[in-house]
Amino acid sequence: MLMTPWQPYTDLWGKMGQFREEMDRLFDSFGFGDGRWPSLAAAYPTVNLWEDGDHVYAEAELPGMELSDLEIYVTGGNQLTLKGERKEPAFGKGVWHRQERGFGMFTRVITLPVDVDADQVEARFAHGVLTITMPKSETAKPRKITVKTE
């Protein structure tokens, strides 16, 4: 009788290899086969969003960007859109060894917690940080209700 050694993980490693090859093919089909996968990065730009009684605030990190490459919209009363282009630096005839910062066109749409007054929105851009102050619309502000007794 011929005995073969028991190898419980042989099929598992084969399946994992097939899965990796399929994923590589998938990323290659979207143009990310060179190791630069910008779609896998966190949403860009990163945004902090908070509110107080009268305003909604947004703060976005946009290092290295120029204000001329950035557009800001408030639509539908509660949709903040940040749109722009982050240009790739020209570094001559060098070769990339690591590229973790993404470049190119971006659009980020953020749903605000309440409606805001789009005509009164203010934005400031300093030291690579965009700060947006959005007054809440009158209908979104809390109102104290007086309770009457009979």
Could you walk me through the main structural features you see in this protein, from its secondary elements to its overall organization?
By secondary structure, the chain is an alpha+beta fold. It has a domain at 43-88 and 103-135: Immunoglobulin-like. It contains one helix and seven strands. A four-stranded antiparallel sheet has the order 1-2-7-6, with no helix packed on it. The chain has a three-stranded antiparallel sheet with strand order 3-4-5, with no helix packed on it. Strand 1 (47-51) and strand 2 (55-61) form a beta hairpin. It is flat, with a radius of gyration of 25 Å. The N and C termini lie far apart (98 Å).
CATH class of the domain at 43-88 and 103-135: Mainly Beta
Unreliably modeled segments? none
Strand content: 25-35%
In the CATH hierarchy, the architecture of the domain at 43-88 and 103-135 is Sandwich
What is the H/E order? HEEEEEEE
What is the strand arrangement across the widest sheet?
A: 1-2-7-6
Number of strands: 7
How far is it from the N-terminal to the C-terminal residue, by CA?
98 Å
What structural class do the secondary elements suggest?
A: alpha+beta
> What proportion of the residues is helical, as a percent range?
10-25%
What is the CA-atom radius of gyration, in angstroms?
A: 25 Å
